[in-house]
């Protein structure tokens, strides 16, 4: 089963290739793209241990000159200091403007490699080969790249579209269950903001918290529909001047939770799950959508095994302060993505601090009706 999705961005257009066994076809699939002969393959030690040699062999068999750069794993290493390791490897292996960086890993590897490619020699090619569910359906698509600042997530970054996104669902069984659940948060997001049919299919699935709960057909459909949703939005708004902002559903409070806990207590998808619960409740309070839709979303988030409460020890004033440093702040106002019905959402700056506080204060006692 294979899918090919086109991200239509004029001269920057590219394909998302989804199919079992695609990792071993990496060299074959990028050969027609004229990406130069020198490739820097960037990964982390664990992912490289699983899949690095297969990627390297595929590239070398296709005639590419491959160098390897492995970065330490973890959000706490998504920093300018770690980025320097990619630049050093690019210099050592004499990457040229025609050369290519290949990101083999999750969203962190993809974001950092993409940013390094955007800035090395003022911009070279990058190919994304995501190995986590979250990276497959979200981080690898759309050209957002960057690293974290101590006071905010991805505050240092650039838009830099890949030449190809290659997705092989066969790599997902080695993904830790926690990471799989985190990726499912982004899948649920697409169902809420864009694709009602996807939302219903998730409701019908017997489980969402581990890959064994999904048959191969449903997994392929989840990947395809999620990637198509992202491609649809990005094709209409590459640099988030309008519509693309809806992809930040759950991310406003989610990013605040991540940064205030030092990126070590909750991982990104878990924070997005918490953020979606909060945004849904805000939407109910503002009369934008109904309690039934809120409960349906809450049930999916729980079904995926994601947290629905704030981590202990967080101060509400700190969360409100952190929102002011969010990238989505415009003219001093925090912009929230809020659902209006399943499959549709809006962006608004009309959410007051009082409403946010009321919702977060009620978080610990929320339960299904």
TrEMBL record:
Q: Could you state one GO biological process linked to this protein? A: chorismate biosynthetic process
Question: What are its E.C. numbers?
Answer: 4.2.3.4
Main subcellular localisation:
cytoplasm
List the molecular function annotations (GO) for this entry: 3-dehydroquinate synthase activity; metal ion binding; nucleotide binding
Query: Reaction catalysed by this chain?
Result: 7-phospho-2-dehydro-3-deoxy-D-arabino-heptonate = 3-dehydroquinate + phosphate
Any keyword Transport? Answer: no
Give compartment(s): Cytoplasm
Q: Kindly tell me the pathway this chain contributes to.
A: Metabolic intermediate biosynthesis; chorismate biosynthesis; chorismate from D-erythrose 4-phosphate and phosphoenolpyruvate: step 2/7
A Pfam family hit: DHQS_C
Cofactor(s) the record lists: NAD(+); Co(2+); Zn(2+)
Q: Which domain of life is it from?
A: Bacteria
Ranges where the 3-dehydroquinate synthase N-terminal domain occurs: 69-181
Q: What binding details are noted for the cofactor?
A: Binds 1 divalent metal cation per subunit. Can use either Co(2+) or Zn(2+).
A cellular component term, taken from the record's GO annotations: cytoplasm
Domain (3-dehydroquinate synthase C-terminal) ranges: 183-329
What is the uppermost EC class here? lyase
Q: Which InterPro entries match?
A: Dehydroquinate_synthase (IPR050071), DHQ_synth_AroB (IPR016037), DHQ_synth_fam (IPR030963), DHQS/DOIS_N (IPR030960), DHQS_C (IPR056179)
Q: Which UniProt keywords apply?
A: Amino-acid biosynthesis, Aromatic amino acid biosynthesis, Cobalt, Cytoplasm, Lyase, Metal-binding, NAD, Nucleotide-binding, Zinc
The entry's Zn(2+)-binding residues are: 186, 251, 268
Where NAD(+) is bound, by residue?
A: 131-132, 144, 153
Q: What does this protein do?
A: Catalyzes the conversion of 3-deoxy-D-arabino-heptulosonate 7-phosphate (DAHP) to dehydroquinate (DHQ).
The entry's family comment says: Belongs to the sugar phosphate cyclases superfamily. Dehydroquinate synthase family.
Q: Known NCBIfam families for this protein?
A: aroB
Q: Which PANTHER family match?
A: 3-DEHYDROQUINATE SYNTHASE, 3-DEHYDROQUINATE SYNTHASE, CHLOROPLASTIC
Q: What is this protein called?
A: 3-dehydroquinate synthase
Organism annotation: Planktothrix tepida PCC 9214
Q: Which gene encodes it?
A: aroB
